[in-house]
User: Fold this.
Amino acid sequence: TPGVGVAISEDELRARVNLSQPGTRLSRQIILRNTNDLLVYLRDLGYFNAVVESSEQLDASGTRATVTFRVAPGEQARVRTFDIGVTGFDLTTVRPSLELQPGARFTREALGRDVRTIREAIINSGYLAPLLDDPRVVRDSEANDVSIELKGKVGPKVTVLVPDFPMKEKTSRELLPVKREGNIDASAIIEGARRIRNKLQEDGYFFAEVTPVCTDRKST
Assistant:
């Protein structure tokens, strides 16, 4: 059970416990593992000072026990800074749309969404297959805030053309992994050709041929 006034619900915590079903075989090791799972979950939500305590009470028969987890999350950490350095790309336009602005409550889930937003912004500008390092999160335990650093570099500038099959941008992103995911592997390009062929056949062009061609144009 979480402390009074805490935003985390009891159902959220119970979902992380693997002995919630009556009849589950109990051991001290299982209880410790569940305690650790709760701590990991809370820290992913930014509750780095969380404390989880457990207790067991046997019934009269000595064969059944009630396990209680007492959770004191403490204060949720906030973002001090989010430094982003992606070589070859100006993130000025995307930065205001990020969730983890200075002062925002930190969660690993929000950080994951922000990294995806940055990656998609790079891909949408035509730089496919960007290389982003794992974000580095440094916590100041006294201030209970975190400094985040994300480094990386853009991939190659890629122009995707389907000259004989004009289609809207939404359709091209649905059909082509190279545009939707920024994946320039040969398998993704071949998959895109297959999907275009299927689309043409659905439109009645049963003998359509689709040939992917990759051209490397280097400036001199």
Residues 177 and 187 are 10 Å apart (CA to CA). The chain has a mean pLDDT of 85. Residues 28-44 form the longest helix (17 residues).
